[in-house]
Amino acid sequence: MGNATFTRYLILLSHASKPFTETVVRAHVAHLKQLDRDGKLVICGPFTNYKGGMVLIKASSYEEAVSIANSDPFVKEGVEKFEVRTLEMSCEENNHMGMG
């Protein structure tokens, strides 16, 4: 695996079986706000051309990323299911993974 400094975790959310309610959406937003306060949230939002959304986070491990995904009210309430992808960032700071 790559350098942890440049590792992020992408939580892909897709609709499960239960309907969205205002209560669960507000709880999901509170969850995202807490991730942001904790310095873990990079970017998030719904897709405009596909059902579902994403949450890009900083985490110490894949297991922590899965734990964060499982703690999302959307997931806990059965409104959304998720997949976690590990992303190694390509950026100027790491010379585009040594290839730049």
Q: Would you write up a description of this structure?
A:
The chain is 33% helix and 29% strand. It has four helices and four strands. The mean pLDDT is 92.
Top keywords for this entry?
4 helices, 29% strand, four-stranded antiparallel beta sheet, alpha+beta, elongated, 100 residues, 33% helix, single chain
Write the layout of secondary structure elements.
Blueprint: E1 7-15, H1 22-37, E2 41-46, E3 53-57, H2 62-70, H3 73-76, E4 80-88, H4 95-98
Antiparallel strand pairs: 1-3, 1-4, 2-3
Order of helices and strands: EHEEHHEH
Radius of gyration: 15 Å
Query: How many distinct beta strands?
Result: 4
Tell me what portion of residues adopts beta-strand conformation. 25-35%
What is the residue-averaged pLDDT? Answer: 92
Tertiary shape: elongated
Which regions are unreliable across 5 or more consecutive residues at pLDDT < 50?
A: none
Q: How do the strands of the widest beta sheet line up side by side?
A: 2-3-1-4
Structural class computed from helices and strand pairing: alpha+beta
Largest beta-sheet characterization: 4 strands, antiparallel
**End-to-end Cα distance:** 19 Å
Helical stretch count?
4
Helical amount? 25-40%
Quick overview:
The chain is an alpha+beta fold. About 35% of the residues lie in helices and about 30% in strands.
